[in-house]
Amino acid sequence: MIEGIHILLTYDCTLECNHCFLHCGPHAGGTFRLDQICALLDQAIELGTVTSVCFEGGEPVVYYSLLLECVRQARIRDLGVGIVTNAYWATSVEDAELVLRPLHEAGLDHVTMSDDALHYGAEAGKHRLRVEEAANRLGMTVSVISVEAPTVIGATDESPAKVSGSVMFRGRAAERMTAGLPTRPWDTLSSCPRERLDSPGRVHVDCFGSVHLCQGLLMGNLWETPLKQLVAKFDPHADPIVGPILRGGPAALVRAHDLSHSEGYVDECHLCYSARQEMRRQGNQASLGPAQAYGIA
Ligand code: SF4
Question: What tens digit of pLDDT does each residue of 38-60 get?
């Protein structure tokens, strides 16, 4: 049952991180208009199960006046509302408060922010302190997403070398952060470890209408088929991409579509992304998109 909609307000971002699971950056584009946000929120209400929305990206604060109205529009519809931000705007406590106060007055009570060495290098931790202090003054709460760089845990007599860390090897991360890491045989990657593809509790939506089950893997397009109908008619087990993944992970997707592959991949998501990228190159743009998820048109 879909209870949350994560709204990719834009694919634009102030940063262009190697570990991004999309291909966000300063010129990525793909920004909602306000009328599209209102239509999406109405579709979310129509679905009957959605209780909250979260505005993210990209970096949603880049489009601040739009974001402010988005928060208001969600609250008008009695939806819980959150944002995810890299907090680039928190250059001081006072400046952080300048950003947060109008959002709080519009109905935002909680901020989720990224702050780690992958985003800010030696400056990691400073944005967090500023946002926490500003939020505290306003009576808001903050949670922090901190992604660790991949590290290799050495092989032992009992087990081969492994990769630890919290990077998800999809999107740009799959292309830029996998070199030199130990791999596992492709045909052993036989389950999806992170998403409930057959019963999602939340989906991501962008301005193109893409309804993402996982980044770049689409349930359909809500500008073409309203979300309520899309959810009602979606049969994950019969879907030509989701079905194989459910039955046997990314390895089954490769077999089902006779896709080319290397001998080894860092993890399931690395193979899944690579396989889906090949399918998109072959022309499957209806279920695999948009360009900002794959780094290719
Ligand atoms: S295996 Fe594929 S569908 Fe599952 S979480 Fe990884 S990238 Fe997403």
Answer: 999 999 999 999 999 999 999 99
